[in-house]
Design goal:
six-stranded mixed sheet; single chain; alpha+beta
């Protein structure tokens, strides 16, 4: 696209806030940007400010845009689109977090929900900065207007209203408790709210709050006040409510280092004046992008669905007025310290960002040791059961060596005492979801299987059957040998890459055992009917013997080895269980 083409297309853009996209002739998104004034901002690309941008404009054949209600929404939508399309000319943080949206689906009886992947044809509002606040507002909307939140499967062919109707958050159009015309009027009220008519929801909440206070129902009044604060804050009218959100004095310190087309941001997290967390994040940074651009991309992309701290310290000013306004609205103090303890912390973050491999870089060392690309995202798998009972699998995630707990998953598996078959089922479940696009997480760079050659072979079978092309290795517990399809590695005990795999493996094991114990302990068993066996004794029996069948097979002497089981109780157990 030449300069005249950019100017001609820009003249068609509105003078409103929003985002714009440059695309090539194959429909690939090359660059996403935000603007307070779309027409003015896009027109500036007729005279590119750098060689990198000039190359991007030259490759582009299509210029598109989307208007937003506010500058903050443009900022957040830009971050979402960068993560979705991964445009090569943007600085990109390699994680999958995105800001929440609200959608009203394109049904005769629309469903309302929070989502990050809206349906085709849906009316979408957002993005929003705080998922908890959005969910509070959504609950208040449903309590006021009764819109459904259920899936199509649950909505169809119902004979009676579900629990949401009994709770007063749905008017049950599924069974005709409300006519479609009346339901449509309620949907229209919700549209009006998201389009800026705050009183549609705020006014009934305020009346209800005042009535509760008059009746001295102070707990209910306080709950309604909190909802009202969230409603007004969603549309930027609740600054007082928002300003206290980060009064904990938590501080994030950011240091960025750029080398070629790779950037690293080190994040130090301090609470109460003490450092409690350190982590490094890798970003794709197109050649020519400086630290300020890296800070801008990191701040907007990293804090999607992560709690904002009370303050963010940077080594360099991100130089972005929209980011500054957004953080100020959220009660976050953005600073570039020049001296004192804060400047020392920034220097420490910069040193962490500038580390290259070495003893502290387990991810880089692992890549070197295995001869693969840097495996930023590692997923660990383990299976837990008690002699084939309460069989469960865990799927944990580490990004840049740090646990990403929001991406942990667990699954109940087929009841059988076969570790290989269980692992094959677990990995196949993950692979099928990834291949079909039903898993909202990005593909990992490496799978780590808890076990030996047999478990790795079972995982490999699942990958081959589904066609999911992700490398897999295993870590055996006894000798801590790393097993790959090409050979076995026996790394030194102090190797950072071995420590990294051990942390992921141990976390997968912990998560699997925790789920197994929860599932096992919560299942009602024949032991519930045995006099003298309470919940705690039942848990101890199941932990000791693994299943009710094993308790039934145990001798009286074996039963009395469990704390709380005396001779009389042991005989009662044997009599009752037969």
């Amino acid at each position: 696209m030449d300069s005249d083409g950019v100017r001609e297309r820009a003249s068609e853009f509105p003078r409103e806030p929003g985002v714009y996209q440059f695309e090539d002739d194959e429909g690939r998104v090359l660059y996403v940007g935000k603007a307070v004034d779309l027409r003015s901002r896009v027109r500036s690309y007729a005279d590119p400010r750098s060689n990198r941008i000039a190359k991007m404009v030259e490759r582009a054949t299509v210029l598109d845009f989307a208007v937003t209600d506010t500058e903050t929404q443009a900022l957040l939508l830009e971050a979402n689109l960068i993560k979705r399309h991964r445009p090569p000319y943007n600085v990109r943080l390699k994680d999958d977090k995105s800001y929440p949206l609200v959608q009203l689906t394109d049904h005769a009886v629309p469903r309302i929900e929070v989502t990050r992947d809206p349906d085709d044809g849906a009316t979408v509002y957002g993005p929003f900065t705080d998922k908890g606040r959005v969910e509070t507002v959504l609950k208040a909307l449903r309590e006021t207007y009764g819109l459904r939140g259920c899936s199509d499967h649950k909505y169809r062919n119902r004979e009676r209203p579900c629990l949401d109707y009994e709770m007063g958050i749905c008017t049950a159009p599924c069974t005709g408790e409300i006519s479609e015309a009346d339901y449509a009027a309620d949907v229209e009220s919700v549209h009006r709210f998201f389009e800026g008519e705050v009183g549609v929801l705020a006014d009934p909440l305020r009346r209800e709050m005042e009535a509760a206070a008059a009746e001295q129902a102070f707990e209910r009044a306080a709950n309604l006040r909190d909802k009202l604060d969230a409603v007004e804050a969603l549309h930027g009218q609740g600054d007082a409510a928002v300003s206290d959100t980060h009064a904990t004095a938590a501080t994030d310190v950011l240091g960025a280092a750029v080398e070629g087309e790779r950037a690293v941001v080190a994040r130090l997290h301090a609470e109460g004046g003490k450092l409690v967390e350190r982590e490094r994040h890798t970003l794709d940074a197109p050649d020519g992008e400086g630290p300020a651009g890296v800070y801008r991309a990191f701040i907007t992309q990293y804090y999607a669905e992560r709690e904002l701290p009370g303050a963010i310290l940077c080594a360099e000013d991100p130089a972005d007025a929209e980011i500054a306004r957004w953080l100020e609205t959220e009660g976050v103090d953005l600073r570039v310290p020049g001296a004192g303890r804060e400047a020392t912390l920034v220097d420490l973050a910069l040193k962490n960002a500038r580390q290259r491999g070495g003893a502290d870089d387990g991810v880089g060392a692992l890549a070197d040791a295995l001869g693969i690309d840097r495996p930023r995202r590692i997923e660990g798998f383990d299976v837990s059961h008690a002699q084939g009972r309460s069989v469960v699998g865990s799927n944990v995630t580490a990004v840049d060596g740090n646990p990403e707990k929001s991406d942990y998953r667990r699954k109940k598996l087929t009841e059988r005492n076969d570790d290989y078959a269980n692992m094959r089922e677990l990995v196949r479940w993950r692979a099928e979801r990834a291949v079909s696009g039903r898993d909202d997480r990005p593909d990992p760079d490496l799978l780590l299987i808890d076990g030996g050659d047999g478990q790795l072979g079972a995982a490999g079978d699942a990958l081959a059957e589904t066609g999911w092309d992700v490398p897999a290795i295993a870590l055996a517990k006894d000798e801590e040998l790393v097993i790959t399809p090409d050979g076995v590695y026996d790394w030194p005990d102090d190797a950072p890459h071995l420590h990294l795999l051990q942390r992921v493996r141990d976390e997968a094991h912990r998560f699997a055992v925790q789920y197994h114990q929860t599932l096992r302990d919560e299942v009602s068993t024949a032991l519930d009917d045995v006099p003298g066996v309470g919940p705690e004794t039942r848990k101890r029996l199941l932990r000791r013997f693994g299943s009710v069948e094993n308790v039934r097979a145990a001798s009286a002497e074996e039963l009395t080895t469990v704390d709380g089981v005396g001779d009389a109780t042991a005989e009662t157990i044997r009599t009752r269980l037969g």
